[in-house]
Each structure stands twice: as structure tokens, then as C-alpha cells.
Design brief:
The protein has 5 helices and no strands. By secondary structure, the chain is mainly α.
């Protein structure tokens, strides 16, 4: 599972930003089910995964995760809207 491998440590098992690593961040990681994140276009989420998020703790993962797998993560994050 790509989320478990690359995202869960910060965003948490329940996608709420309360992962074991993320709890120490200021600002904390985003709740991936929030209206704010769910309203972001897929391309913005892809860009933030790829190149990091200015003013946040999202690391740039373009050299760590393949393009196809980054898009799979984007699709997974967007699917959380239906949970």
C-alpha cells in the first residue's frame, strides 16, 4: 500500500494528520479528508507530493516515488472524500 509506505507516518492511519511522526510537526500535517484538501485539484496534490509544500512539512518526493505511484496516491487521497 503506497499510503502506508509513504504517507501514514505523518498523515496517520486514519488520514487525519495524527501520524506518529506528524504529531511533532508545526504546523501539523493536513487532515486528508478535510474539505480544504478534498477541494484541491488533483494537479495541486500531485505537485505538493512531488515538490513539497511551501510553509509546510510535506517533503519533496519526486525522486523517491515514481510518477505513476504519485498519481495513485493522489487518486487514493481523492477517494477519501467518499469515506
Amino acid at each position: 500500500n503506497l499510503y502506508a509506505t509513504y504517507c501514514m507516518q505523518c498523515h496517520g492511519e486514519f488520514h487525519d494528520g495524527n501520524g506518529t511522526v506528524g504529531q511533532s510537526f508545526v504546523p501539523p500535517p493536513g487532515n486528508l479528508m478535510s474539505a480544504r484538501i478534498q477541494s484541491l485539484p488533483e494537479g495541486v496534490i500531485f505537485q505538493e507530493i512531488s515538490y513539497g509544500k511551501p510553509g509546510g512539512r510535506q517533503p519533496a518526493l519526486a525522486t523517491t516515488i515514481s510518477i505513476d505511484d504519485r498519481w495513485r496516491i493522489v487518486a487514493y487521497v481523492k477517494s477519501l472524500d467518499t469515506w
